[in-house]
Specification:
Helix 4 runs antiparallel to helix 5. The chain has a three-stranded antiparallel beta sheet, with helices on one face. A hairpin with a 5-residue loop joins strand 1 and strand 2. The chain has one domain. The chain is mainly alpha-helical and 208 residues long. The termini are far apart. The model has no long low-confidence stretch (mean pLDDT 84). It has five helices and three strands. The longest helix is centred in the N-terminal third of the chain and has 59 residues.
Length: 208
Amino acid sequence: MSSPINLLPDASHFSQWLPATAVVGILIFLVKEFLEGRRRKAADARKVSALKTVLARECQLNYWAIKQLRDLLTTMQDSEVTKDASRLLISKRAAGGFVYTINSPLSSGGGVLVGIQRDSLLKHLVEIAGLDKSFYLNCEHALDSLSEADHVYQSLVHGPEQHFPSTLENYYEGLIPYALSELDDSITALQKLYLICTGAELRRGKLR
């Protein structure tokens, strides 16, 4: 039985069928592609690092905002605002956000609520998707959670729609347990994203 015909030239005769200049050209091309690949990879790593720094700050801002929001909802629950909505007053603040006061037979106090920050995540999400898929998925999850937190914020500071079919007490009765559950999820998502961005636990927020 005859042996199969080898259509490829023997490696020892490589120089006979491929000119030396072509070999040099191919080697130069491969080296350039390798170096360019390393350069792009290093540049992408620097971009991701910079984005993580920006998003870590946004995590801190939102952590503070959500903690304030959660504390108010817990106080509303303890002060039985669901039985007497007049115990809570919320008004728009000239400097931005809202101020609240809460009074009950058990306690009284007040504070400031600021909005949820999503601008950086929204601005950079597409860029992150092209740089790091795993990081993108965590950013997307955090953004979804912040959207829910913003819904809670808007629902609380603006109250029910004009044609809400029941009392303000009933509105708060439905809002408080739902809001506390959603805000717990939002905090968990922020903590996870912050850990990815910094390698540290998110323990303190920032007001500004």
